[in-house]
Amino acid sequence: MQQWPWKRIWPALAWVAVLFALSSIPGDELPYVQAPLGFDKVLHIVAYAVLGMLAMRGWFEAGVAPWIIFAFCVGYGVTDELHQIFVPGRFPDVYDWIADVIGSGVGTWGMFHWLRRRRRAA
Question: How do residues 63-97 score in pLDDT, each as one tens digit?
Fold first, then answer.
């Protein structure tokens, strides 16, 4: 078995910490931005696409199956939404979680195919 690639795992774990910190901001401290309806879902998709890419990059090379990496990202999205129950002025939203799932899928799928193509070229 391959040695665990710690140098590639830390970015995904750091991004999880960033997402947790952002979810911990109380609702009344969030900046008000006049944005189109649903723009927050785009932000969720982008944030979780980044998580999917970083997780795939780090764990795929360690031999972790892509579906497990995707499940990790989706599972973290669930815990992130549930965490907001405990943050004043915030609440879990199933539509935010759906956006997290879409972003996780885009990030893990895209990085998986990029890594496979790179591996074939080598």
Answer: 899 999 999 999 999 999 999 999 999 999 999 99
Give the domain range for residue 19: 9-25+35-121
Residues 6+ apart with CB under 8 A from 96: 40, 41, 44, 81
Mean pLDDT of 38-43: 90
Structure tokens at 121: 């070229």
49, 87 contact by CB (below 8 A): no
Number of folded domains in the chain?
1
Which tokens is 90 given? Answer: 């915030």
Terminal C-alpha separation, the chain:
20
| Domain annotation covers residue 1 | no
What's the pTM value of the predicted model, to 2 decimals? 0.90
